[in-house]
Amino acid sequence: MPCLVTVGGFFGDEGKGKIVAYLAKRDNPTIAVRGGVGPNAGHTFAFEGKEYKVRMLPSAALNPSTRLLIGAGVLVNPRILLNEIAMFKADDRTYVDAQCGIIEQQHIDRDKSEDHLKSKVGTTGTGTGPANADRALRTLKLAKDIPELSLYIEDVSNSVNFALEAGEKVLVEGTQGTYLSLFHGGYPYVTSRDVTASGICSDVGIGPKRVDDVLAVFKAYVTRVGGGPLENELSEEEAKKRGWLEFGSVTGRQRRAAPFDFELAKKAVRLNSATQIAVTKMDVLFPECARMRDWNKLSAGAKKFVEEIEGELGVKVTLIGTGPELDDVVDRR
Ligand code: IMP
Ligand code: MG
After folding, report:
1. Among 123, 118, 208, 221, which Cα is nearest to 172's?
2. How would DSSP label each residue in 191-207?
3. 129 C-beta closer than 6 A to ligand 1
4. Site to substitute for ligand 1 among 59, 108, 180, 189, most atoms within 8 A of C-beta
5. What's the gap in Å between 219 CA and the centre of ligand 2?
6. CB of 88 within 8 A of CB of 155?
7. Is 107 labeled as catalytic in the residue annotation?
8. Strands of 153-154's sheet in order across
C-alpha cells in the first residue's frame, strides 16, 4: 500500500472481490473506495463459511474499521446500496460522493429493452449504459439530489486525498476488467466506461502520481459473459469437464471459458501499469493446491504455471487464490 489500486486483467469476474476482501482484512486500510461502472459488477467473497456478494459497496465491507467510499464516477442504484449498507451494518462508515450518478428504473428498462444492448452487446441489464449515456448528455440525476442518500453524502475525492496526505492506507477497488473498457476493450462488446487503472483513479478523484501499486487480478483461466470474441473458447462440454463452467453473480448467465491468455495478460499489464499480479482460482486448475497458504507446499505444476506468468509478464505474482474463503491465499508480498 499506502495507495493500492486493484483492477481486473481480463473480462471481469477474475475474483477481485475475494482479493480485495483479503487485503482489507490483512492490511486493515483506513479507506476502501470503489471506482468502476456501478451495480453491473458483482463481487463475491466467503468468510467463515458464509458467502457475501456486493454490487455497490467496496468488497472491504467485512472489515468494520474500514471506511467504505464510492467515487464520483460510479453509478449508484440507491435501492441496492441501501440494502447492502443494512446487510453489513455499515451506515456509520459508508460515504457516497455527492456527484455519483443515479440509476433510475427508466435506465434499467432501456438497458433491458434496446435490442442493441440486450441482444448484441449482452449487457447485464442493470441500467448502467443508459445512465452513463444520460450523464454524457448532462441530464442524469446525481446523488446529492436524492433525499434517501443525504446521510451518506460527502466529497469522496477530498476524503481519499486527505487520507493519503496523512499517510493512511487506501485501497482503491476497480470493477469489471481491462477488456471490458469502453476505450481499450473490444468495442462494442464492452461496458460503458474505461475500467483500466487510470479510469478507476479518475472515478475516485486521485491523480496518477498518488498511486503506489497497481494490482492486476487474473483468473487462472479466462471467462466472459455477454457478446464479443473470446480466443480459444472451449465448448460447454469441455469447460464443464475442466470445472471451468461458472455462472454470473449479477445475471446468472453461464460464462464462456478459455485457457489463460498470455497475450491479453501482457497487454493488460501495460494498460494498467501493473506492479503486482494476483492469480485466482488456482485450485480449479490445480486441485491438489486447494486451500493452501504456503508457496512451498504448492505442487510443481502450480509453481511452474505461476513462474511462467511472471516470466512472460515481467511482474511478480504476489497473491495466489487457492479457494473461496477469504484466507485461502498464498501471500508472497
Ligand atoms: P454492461 O456493463 O451491463 O453495459 O454490459 C456490457 C458488457 O460488460 C457485457 O458483456 C457484460 O456481460 C459485461 N460486464 C459488465 N459488468 C461486468 C462484470 O462485473 N463482470 C463481468 N462482465 C461484466
Ligand atoms: Mg463479477
Report:
1. 208
2. -SS--SHHHHHHHHT--
3. yes
4. 180
5. 12
6. no
7. no
8. 153-154, 94-97, 67-70, 31-34, 170-173, 3-8, 213-219, 276-280, 317-321, 329-331
Is residue 43 flagged as an active site residue? yes
Share of the chain above pLDDT 90, in %: 98
Identify the residue whose C-alpha is closest to ligand 1 atom 22.
Answer: 12
- At 141 the three-state DSSP class reads coil
pLDDT in tens, the chain (333 residues): 699 999 999 999 999 999 999 999 999 999 999 999 999 999 999 999 999 999 999 999 999 999 999 999 999 999 999 999 999 999 999 999 999 999 999 999 999 999 999 999 999 999 999 999 999 999 999 999 999 999 999 999 999 999 999 999 999 999 999 999 999 999 999 999 999 999 999 999 999 999 999 999 999 999 999 889 999 999 999 999 999 999 998 889 999 999 999 999 999 999 999 999 999 999 999 999 999 999 999 999 999 999 999 999 999 999 999 999 999 999 999
CA of 169 to the centre of ligand 2 (A): 25
Mutation to probe ligand 1, out of 123, 189, 255 (largest number of atoms < 8 A from CB): 123
Domains and CATH numbers, the chain: 3-331 (3.40.440.10)
> Cis omega (within 30 of 0) on the bond before 188?
yes
Q: Which pLDDT tens digit goes with each residue over 242-284?
A: 999 999 988 899 999 999 999 999 999 999 999 999 999 999 9
- Which secondary structure element, helix H or strand E, spans residue 5, and what is its range? strand 3-8
The number of residues in the chain equals: 333
Closest CA to 248 of 78, 74, 125: 125
How far apart CA 328 and CA 316 sit, in angstroms, is 19
- Could you say which DSSP state residue 322 is in? -
Q: Which three cell numbers stand for residue 301?
A: 505444476
Three-class SS state of 56: coil
